[in-house]
Write a structure and sequence with these properties.
The chain is an alpha/beta fold and 240 residues long. The protein is built from nine helices and eight strands. The chain has one domain: Rossmann fold, CATH 3.40.50.410. Bound molecules: 2-acetamido-2-deoxy-beta-D-glucopyranose (2 copies). Keywords: Signal.
Length: 240
């Protein structure tokens, strides 16, 4: 067996261990949403930084977010993160007082600037005010254009009230909400209810835009695999 075949088998094996076989992948979702016309989106990363997430897990979560940014930057073509193409923002949610817009939509125009801004977000907080996080995303996304919330969470809301009605109100204005659910303590009822339905080619029914991982390490590994499927090798070498 040659090396690339071995690497491919290893990657497929790893994906199967960490994620359900019929599960959606990050590149599949981004390709489905942003491969169309008009292709350009407003994207807010909505990142859980509550107390159950440790320093290593926070690092993995941000690595996965960075690889997702990379995929967005290359969908539908290279350099798609740009002041007049995809625009990016980030909300961090946890306790009420640390749930914040860390950087607003379009604050940083280009990929590399967004990359640095995401990499330097500090972790803060104990509780999980999912609803306030969604409200801040809604404020950033406004009412027009193609709009996506990419939420990552390892748990369930325990402050600020039920986030599901807020999510439903946002979806009714056309916002797409995708949720990455990490670890064993997620409330999957809440997560599924917040997420948008997507029509995926090859499926006869719509699927919730939900990705489940057993750990932040598994999420990070899957995001890197997704990035490697999307990004031309030339660009892959440029940024570690
Ligand atoms: C962070 O959490 C992970 C997963 O639960 C665990 O394996 C790891 O040892 C923890 N790391 C630290 C620094 O506490
Ligand atoms: C999970 O979320 C649902 C819907 O928001 C809620 O009704 C339920 O009480 C939650 N369950 C747990 C164990 O937190």
């Amino acid at each position: 067996m040659n090396l690339s075949a071995l690497l491919l088998l290893t990657a497929v094996g790893a994906a199967c261990i960490n994620q359900r076989v019929d599960a959606l992948t990050i590149d599949q979702i981004i390709g489905l949403l942003m491969g169309g016309s008009p292709p350009y989106w407003k994207v807010i990363f909505d990142v859980d930084s509550s107390g159950s997430i440790n320093t290593t897990e926070w690092y993995y979560s941000k690595q996965a977010t960075l690889d997702t940014l990379f995929i967005i930057d290359n969908t539908p073509a290279a350099d798609s993160v740009h002041p007049i193409r995809h625009r990016i923002g980030l909300v961090r949610f946890s306790d009420e007082d640390v749930t914040k817009v860390i950087f607003g939509l379009g604050t940083y125009g280009l990929f590399s600037q967004n990359y640095m801004a995401i990499a330097s977000v500090p972790k803060k907080g104990i509780q999980t005010n999912t609803k306030k996080g969604l409200q801040l995303c809604q404020n950033e996304l406004g009412v027009q254009g193609k709009r996506l919330v990419w939420m990552t969470t390892d748990g369930k809301s325990n402050q600020g009230g039920n986030p599901v009605p807020k999510a439903n109100a946002m979806k009714s204005t056309g916002i797409v909400i995708c949720v990455v659910a990490v670890g064993p303590d997620t409330n999957m009822t809440e997560i599924n209810d917040m997420a948008s339905w997507l029509w995926i080619p090859g499926y006869i029914k719509p699927k919730r835009c939900v990705l489940e991982f057993e750990s932040f390490q598994a999420y990070k590994t899957a995001a890197r695999a997704a990035r490697n499927r999307v990004v031309p090798a030339r660009r892959n070498r440029r940024i570690k």
